[in-house]
Amino acid sequence: MTTEERVREAAVRLFAERGFHGTGIRDLAQAAGLSSATLYHYMGTKEDLLVSIMRTSLTELITQAEAIAARAANETDRLVALVEMHVQAHAEKPRETAVVDGEMRALTGDRRAEIVALRDRYEQIWQDAIVDGVQAGRLNVTEPSVARLALLEMCSGVSRWYSPDGPLKLTDLTIQYGAMALGMLGAAR
Amino acid sequence: MTTEERVREAAVRLFAERGFHGTGIRDLAQAAGLSSATLYHYMGTKEDLLVSIMRTSLTELITQAEAIAARAANETDRLVALVEMHVQAHAEKPRETAVVDGEMRALTGDRRAEIVALRDRYEQIWQDAIVDGVQAGRLNVTEPSVARLALLEMCSGVSRWYSPDGPLKLTDLTIQYGAMALGMLGAAR
Amino acid sequence: MTTEERVREAAVRLFAERGFHGTGIRDLAQAAGLSSATLYHYMGTKEDLLVSIMRTSLTELITQAEAIAARAANETDRLVALVEMHVQAHAEKPRETAVVDGEMRALTGDRRAEIVALRDRYEQIWQDAIVDGVQAGRLNVTEPSVARLALLEMCSGVSRWYSPDGPLKLTDLTIQYGAMALGMLGAAR
Amino acid sequence: MTTEERVREAAVRLFAERGFHGTGIRDLAQAAGLSSATLYHYMGTKEDLLVSIMRTSLTELITQAEAIAARAANETDRLVALVEMHVQAHAEKPRETAVVDGEMRALTGDRRAEIVALRDRYEQIWQDAIVDGVQAGRLNVTEPSVARLALLEMCSGVSRWYSPDGPLKLTDLTIQYGAMALGMLGAAR
DNA sequence: AATGAATGAGAGTTCATTCAT
DNA sequence: TATGAATGAACTCTCATTCAT
Lengths: 189, 189, 189, 189
Hints:
4 copies of one chain form a homotetramer. Chain A has 2 domains: 1-43, Arc Repressor Mutant, subunit A (Orthogonal Bundle), CATH 1.10.10; 46-184, Orthogonal Bundle (Tetracycline Repressor, domain 2).
């Protein structure tokens, strides 16, 4: 693992555990095994580091979501595939995703706009999936926007509690979430 | 409104908007219209203030949840009533609830233990409701704990986006969430 | 005991235990059973209070020392009587005397000058006693100033350790100090 | 002189002149020619700095006192040598010794216990010297503990007034204190 | 006589960041 | 590549003091 990766990993972990404002540059340096001065060879500002983490994570989610949207056999499958991918990502990379979901308010100015735009783009994919599902008669929701928000919150929460060392296997987790998603969206049985 | 209430309200707002660590004592003072020294006539430490906000909010939720659990006609009603109450609380007091849901990690030591215990007590009420519903054959979930976590995350998310000034009325919101909850828990139709 | 006395007593105790700068106005108020605002009905500034304590204590010492100097039968008696008086004062009022001996540096400007002048006046009485004793052939010291300083430090130290509840009676204490003083000043046997 | 030494020296001087609580961190920084933030590269807390100064000074005194106790020809020599060493230390390092003698009360908790233990160890060496002198018939004191306290106070006072630039040479000072000590302890002539 | 409320200034300490080496 | 040294600004919190009631 390169030093840059160590820095990044330390940042992901600490930002997730303590939040951006709760993490000091010295904490980061110590966790990465460097002096705080050396840290600055591997990053810009603390906020740059946060942005970079978020961009990477969100971009990956978007890429996967777009691939799913492109290849899904039907609207139901598409929705379930999105849920499974999202849940899996939050189960496998709980820290990265928790940072994305929880630290957006720490960003300022243009950086914030950039990340918000990415998030909006990701959410739009979900919005489309739900709207299309409803139009196709496969889903039954009163208000697609409300459903989208509720669904995403439900799935994102996984990063806060799931542990791969616990009794629940990842595949079972995604299956359950897929089922719950279909249920809450009133999918035709 | 008393000065103490102004302090509290300022804290709730800023903690919700910027997070505990992102809120300085001077920000708080300014928002409450006081000097930072005067602030300390109306609070203990910054952390004390956070604890107090959380305790108040969680205690209120627990009180309401226990009342619902005591009076509900059947397991389905009980679950829906919990959802409606929770969603309503998060819609009406989005800042207080967001602080409860998001700033627990900022607490330290005994204070943290106290608040975590309250949260656990609240979640247990939900857990019981789900388990009872399953046993009564009115709900159908694979894993009650997973369902509880998913359900609570879904409902708590409301504080992050709902606005009473938007197109969606509060009653419609709660109805939709009730329906989604029943759907995701596989309620008998 | 009047409130003013309570304030004074609290100040004496706290200044002695923690020092002037180590004692806060809130500590004083609490020790006197008042609010910090009420405190200011019974005193000027914190420094005024210190000056007042010192003035009272030093004036009393000077009065007693002058009486001794006026009535002593001979130079040896005079020296011993000064020692006994000084030791008794430091044993009976350890806090007042400790404040006088230890907090002079906390004073500023004119206040400091006033107290320093009182202390110098007191020390002059001792200086005269030693010089007269030497001239009378009753004492034998190389350098009267050095002897005076050494003697006063020795006697003042009593306030730091003597307890009336301990095994040593006050009369025995003063007798021992008188004997030690004569010894160190080379008194004719 | 290294920066660390400059910090230490500044602290010794200011703590001696104004007391620990009377010295601010910004005073310290200015006296050392640093910003207050930079100060913290060279010390832990302000109290750590105080402890370190005291430990160094007391350890040196103990080392010297133990060496004297080990090599003294007889009980009288031993006592005089202790006095001379102590007086010399207080004359040559008046600030360090004044801090040791006067700021112990500013310490808290374990730090205080550590320093008190060192001081007690040092005083025990004196106590032994006096007791041994009495048993050997070379000293004549009523109460060794009282004599020890009086003697140490007398000698420590030197740091408060002696100046190497004054008329009194250091060797004369120590000789006079040795003579006074023997006198006050009733040494056989 | 008594105090709650108020505050500017300052306390000790840490912040994120820079730079010469 | 790596870091000690450095700092202005900011941190949370307390200071001594005043004043209207």
